[in-house]
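Teaching assistant here, posting this on the class forum so everyone can see the example we discussed in section. The complex has four components, and the goal was to see what a joint structure prediction looks like when all of them are supplied at once.
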Amino acid sequence: MPSTDAPTDTPWLDAAQQGVWRSFLGGVTVLMDQLDRDLRTQHDLSMAEYEILVRLSEAPDRSIRMAELAAALAHSRSRITHTIARLERDGIVERFQCSSDGRGVTARLTDHGFTVLERAAHTHVRGVHDYLVAQADPADLAAVGRVLESVRRGLEGRHF
Amino acid sequence: MPSTDAPTDTPWLDAAQQGVWRSFLGGVTVLMDQLDRDLRTQHDLSMAEYEILVRLSEAPDRSIRMAELAAALAHSRSRITHTIARLERDGIVERFQCSSDGRGVTARLTDHGFTVLERAAHTHVRGVHDYLVAQADPADLAAVGRVLESVRRGLEGRHF
DNA sequence: AGCATAAAGTTGAACGTTCAATCAACACCC
DNA sequence: GGGTGTTGATTGAACGTTCAACTTTATGCT
């Protein structure tokens, strides 16, 4: 039941909103899970790794600085360091000192990394299409985009 | 570019669909992250733990069998075992043998667990409201519910 | 009944993420 | 121009999830 309640009074959700939230949570869980599993079993890549490769592949010189990667993917710097370290060990990415900023490190996609990405992309895109895009009415899909974009904007630069 | 390409030909996404997918991914990442962090810092609970408590609290006798929990949350059995073990150690949940099925184990929310949940709910619900519900046009929100519900149904009982 | 198979749950190791601490390079500024 | 604070990146430990075994109990078949 709503109203004056706790620390500061809590905006309880009505039944419809609760339903949306539950569907959202369930759908997201199952979707991310499946996409991740597909990439892992078929290409030995996690979704996080795959997303990094995508960003790198689109960037000029196929390279991006660590902090920018972190910001773009909303991952912690530490996570990016660990992940890039793994990718480097596997010859998918290389790391080098940034010339303009002595602290900076730039990650670049290797040629091998690029071909790995090319192959993985088929799997991933098929997944996104089959599990999400094909399930949804196009107008609903657009709504999903709007909502989540606005969520991201509302939350960006928080992280404490 | 589309068409005859790979293993079996891949249904590439157009620009709008890609945009939706990117917003989706970014929004989900940042949203889940923030909700999780809120619960962790203020109540020492992960979202996964919180979700378990919610389900238990709604069930008759505040108890559910492990496998049902796993199915309801789309988590692996193993994950449920570990998580419940932690919650049991903290006195939030208790575990006992199921009478009807010799293999079965039932988890029940303790009284203490219930009060923990009551407090955490304020934080969580406020988060869902502020970060998601308040950001979105109600019609768009309904669309989100429809889409993700259909995603879940399309994918349920996969897990291999 | 008796054997094979499946389902429920647990276990421990491996892996990936988080968190706090650390170090180096840059920026400011008085 | 030498503190003071900030930003970029890394490190290692702690934590949580996954994965592949494994145990136990139930189910199905003939």
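For the discussion questions: Residues 65-67, 77-78, 80-82, 85, 98, 101-105 of chain B lie near DNA strand C (CB under 10 Å from a C1'). The beta strands of chain B are 63-65, 93-97, 105-109. Think about how each of these relates to the inputs above.
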